Amino acid sequence: MSFTIATTLDDALAALAAGARPVAGGTDLVVGARHGKAPLPEHLVAIDRIAELKTVTETADGVSIGALVSHHQIETHPLLTTAYAGLADGSALVGSPATRHIGTLGGNIMNASPAMDTGAPLAVMLAEVELRSVRGTRRVPIEALWSAPGRTGAEPDELCVAVHIPAPDPRANTAYVRLEYRRAMEIAVVGAAAFVALADDGTIAALRVGLTAVAPTIFTGNLLGQVGRSVADAAAAAAALSMEHSTPISDVRASEAYRRHTVGVMARRAVEAAARRAAGETIAIPVNRAIGIGAAS
Amino acid sequence: MTATPTATKPAPRFVRADGPDKVTGSGRYTADLTLTGALAAKFKYADVTHARITKLDVSAARAMPGVFAVLTQADVPSVKFGPFVQDRTLFADGTVRFEGEIIAAVAAVDAATADRAVAAIVVEYSPLPVVNDIEGALAADSPLVHAEWADYGSILVRDRNDASFASIAKGDVEQGLASSHLVVTSRYVADGCHAAPIEPRAVVAQWEGNKVTIWTSTQVPFDARAGVCETLELPNNRVRIIVPHLGGGFGGKCGFHYEAHVAALARVAKRPVRLVFSRREEFVAPDRRREGIVYEFHTGVDADGRIVARKAWLAIDNGAYTADAGFFSQLAAMHALGPYRIPNALAEAHLVYTNHQPSGSVRAPTAPQTCWALESHTDEVARAIGLDPVAFRTLNAVDTGAEGPSGQTYGEIGVQQCIEAAAAGAGYGNPLPDDEAIGVAIGWWPSFSVPSGAYVKIDGDGSGQIITGAQECGTGAVMTLRQLAADELGMDPEDFELVYQDTSVAPYDMGATGSQTLFNNGRAVVAAAGQIAEQLRNLAADRLEASPADIVLADGTASVAGSPDRGVPIAELAGIAAGGELLIGHGSGMPPGPPPTVGSTCVGDLGMSAWVAPQFSCHAVRVKLDRDTGVARVMHVSAAHDSGTIINPIGAQGQVEGAVLMGIGQALTEGTTYDDQGRQRNAALLEYKLQTAADAPPIAVHFVEINTPDAGPRGAKGLAEAPNVATAAAISNALAQLVGAPVRQLPMTAERVWTALTEQAAQS
Question: In this predicted structure, what is the pLDDT of residue B3?
């Protein structure tokens, strides 16, 4: 077993090329190993000190978020909590304050859990993941990255270095809501993200919905048929379509029937919240607390 | 007799003695201990839930390098043990009956080697039919969990899978129901749940000659010692139990667990041995899981809503072995009748063997779930007769001088004041949004009157020590002993250090169980300090030329009554005593005996039908329901308690807050689910959902302080368990209003609430 600490991206990529696996916050890798899910890899390279992967950069096209940006950074970042609010909703729901300070966006994406909270919002934003190796760099649409629970299309020597999100139209925004049984240390029973763009008359100009924990991977739908319809109608349609296209399982957290019902509720709420944000309203992060039950306590 | 909000009482100014250690992280817990040469212990578990062992071969494990000991039942004395039914052995003895049954124990040079040795143990089974259903286990044709049940030693009323039957009968229940204006019949089912302390248990054992010292995370060190002595056939004075800081227990660390296994390993290995449980082991292995129970109730009322008769039937999941659950049937029968005036009552409770993990005392055993079922049923009765739930309880609950369902007539009690205070604190009756409701429930809990001992000494410099057998499990009860000693001696609580949790140093105490520490050990400390007070008065009387009867001990000074300027510092008297008769006190005091019951009979009587200094409570809980998903959120809890005099208000408030939060978890998210073989499906903290700080609602605490007969020191009763009784019930009654019908299974998970909502929608 070996453990090396990379201080530059090149060091990290060289270690990966030599067969090491990356560790940043360790909130999935270490916890999984302790619970017997998967043993720790034989060779680990710590990437948590690579400064260039810790930045959030506004670009001409949108925003680039380094893979080592923590959930806490995201949930408190002035740009991400406004123009990319759905992502901040997701990061704000992850684990506990401790998890959010140490857990990274890149780790969440590459862990490829269908229950991850940042995946659906990034997918409806049409985010791209930048994968880099000693062989070069490529960008992959995020939804295409996930191939199965816990699996991605990244090669073993590729490191997720950044996520690039296109800038939304002025009258567009996102929201992510999830079904949860408690307010911290929770995992999504089901979840839904929505991207809503509004026309000048307040009807739907664009609508995409992404669903969490109701299929082997997070998936999205582009609801072209809702263009020109009212938000209320589109939200109802999103709920019905989400229930129809989900393939949830029954397990100790919920039955298949309950997941199918509640994913519809989450989709409707995500569309409604995203539309309110798209119309210029500020809804506090995470939207779960703002529109969820007990928010006013 | 008015409710006194805690905030209006001046809090004592002493710092909790174990607080700085625990807050700063400098405190040492059992798993933190390291001894030179210590080995790591691991257990081989059955994993199957009911089978005969056809082959057990540990030779490969024993032969592995780094393995110092591998033990099975063949390597320890052949002793069947159990406090109520002697139905188990340290290791599986031919048959396994639940997944967490221990087949073998390994001590090896490190944990990884021990794991490999465990994996090398060969066990083959011949499967036996699994008993996975509580009610089904009572059927005449059910497979038996213990084919040899009739041969076991026991003091209980037993029959096949029924390990303990108890009933409480008063008046004529059938005639009472027949003559009632209206009878409501209900069925409820409570799933089992867990104590889930933050510290998984740990045990370290080291032999020196023929004596063993065992450091262990137990709530009951003397009980643990008794278990070791019984199973390893040792006298009490050769076994020393020491408890470092305990990382929570909630009842889960009561009883005798793995101290004997680790001591036996250490004896064979000739090295210290250390066992530290994983979280999964903490869920699956101990015989301390809150019991699932099936309930049927019939309550008849007259036209005015007065209870005429109540009949209750209970089947309680005992699990595979009878731990301390032997008394649960009688205790649950009391909770199933409840703190009500019932002229005609019959409760019948069966404690049923299954192939589940054994049940055992978890904070207020049988009470939260039975209160949940009974009080949900009670709201159904109130609704049927057209009475407001609070008015129904005010009309029917017991009161000072009233006779309860077991024929005990109560001295001064505060249940009616609790109802009034809890409702007022919740704003009961005020308009609420359509998605919110307030539910109300009342509960009760005994004070346990048992022997307990303590020493107090004051050294020549005037500093004191309290040497007590009492165990601190986090409640602060032991911490409060300093206050009692200080008050008795006119000193400051911080003048006293505590020496505790060591069976070879202190006299007997039952441990952190039954909310009894302050009630009984407080009495012992007051008695011990009283002996020193008498010594000090005599010394001061000599010095001040006054009568001992006129000496007042206050503010660190012994002075003559009425002449505060004629005084001598207690520290100076201690210096004098150090040169002559030393300041040493010992105390126990006589525990009050049980009150009489009249006009009722109890089959399977274990002294649970008449309660010394009973505690009462009423919780009023405001709940908000998301009707689209069934997710409920507790918005506010108003908890009123008659636990007698409150001696340490900060500690008492913390007890209520913690118990309420535990009750919320039991109500909404905490429940064990089993697969078709009786194995736990959610034995992990991600899937077994405890409440978090983020879920905690505001909790308003009211103490109704009354003059309790037969109370503990200064009129105190217990408080550790009582606040855990009524919360889930009150939440249920709020949810029933919001759903339109009760949610009849505990925990009332979001999915179960949603299912009830769906069924209601289908009916309307």
Answer: 40
pLDDT value of residue B472: 94
Question: B455 CB contacts (<8 Å, ≥6 apart)?
Answer: B466, B467, B468, B506, B507, B528, B584, B585, B586, B587
Superfamily of domain A172-281: CO dehydrogenase flavoprotein, C-terminal domain (3.30.390.50)
Question: By percentage, how much of chain B surpasses pLDDT 90?
Answer: 92
Rounded to the nearest angstrom, the gap between the alpha carbon of residue B728 and the centroid of all alpha carbons in its chain is 16
Q: What is the pLDDT of residues B438-494, one digit of tens each?
A: 999 999 999 999 999 999 999 999 999 999 999 999 888 998 999 999 999 999 999
- B669 vs chain A: nearest CA distance in angstroms? 7
Look at phi and psi of residue B416 and say left if phi exceeds 0, alpha if psi is from -120 to 50, else beta. Answer: alpha
Distance from CA of B196 to the nearest CA of A (A): 16
Burial class (CB in 10 A: 0-12, 13-18, 19+), B233: exposed
Chain B residue with Cα closest to A259: B751
- The answer to whether B668 faces chain A, any CB pair under 8 Å, is yes
Kindly list the distances between the CA atom of residue B83 and the CA atoms of B151, B282, B376, B646, in Å, as whole numbers in the listed order. Answer: 16, 21, 33, 33
Chain A / chain B CB contacts < 8 angstroms: 63
Instruction: Given CATH 3.30.365.10, say whether it is the number of domain B454-587.
Output: yes
| Per-10-residue mean pLDDT, chain A, length 297 | 95 97 90 84 96 96 97 98 98 96 96 97 98 98 97 97 96 96 93 98 98 97 97 98 97 96 97 97 93 47
| Amino acid of residue A93 | L
Rounded-to-integer distance, Cα B311 and Cα B349, Å = 11
Q: Which of B469, B465, B476, B454 is nearest to B16 (CA)?
A: B476
Instruction: Give residue A32's pLDDT.
Output: 86
Do the domains B289-449+595-763 and B454-587 sit in the same CATH topology, yes or no?
A: yes
A293–B692: do the CB atoms touch at under 8 Å?
no
Q: Is B667 helix (H, G, I), strand (E, B) or coil?
A: helix
- For B545-563, b/e burial (b = at least 16 CB within 10 A) is ebeeebbbbeebbbbbeee
Please tell me if residue B687 touches chain A, with a CB cutoff of 8 Å: yes
B289-449+595-763 — its CATH code? 3.30.365.10
Does the CB of A39 have a partner CB in chain B at under 8 Å? Answer: no
Q: The tokens of B220 are what?
A: 């009951």
The CATH code for residues B33-128+201-276 is 3.90.1170.50
Specify the DSSP class assigned to residue B521: I
Domain ranges of chain B: 33-128+201-276, 289-449+595-763, 454-587
Distances (CA, A) of B164 to B103, B287, B350, B358: 27, 16, 6, 14
